[in-house]
Amino acid sequence: MKRHPLAIAALIIVLGILIGLVAGWGMAQYETGEIARQVRARNPNDPLDGLPFIGLGIMLIGFVLGTVTGIVGAVVFWLTNRARAGKQGKELVENASH
Description:
98 residues; 0% strand
């Protein structure tokens, strides 16, 4: 982790994207099922043409939110790792000068 902070940051972003996609997929399944159930109860002959687009839109929202969350998490990791490395570097310089 200390030697490859950029790889860890990239992994955090990828995990954020995957979690966002899975959450978006699950939410899309639930919401489109509920919409279909309610529409079929009122109008059984409705072809539900726009339902796939609603599902894709919900998945897109999950993807975007997962990406943003992953990027924010990676930036926080990167900054804390840099600050920690800076403190360790100062300590090494101070110890070497004594």
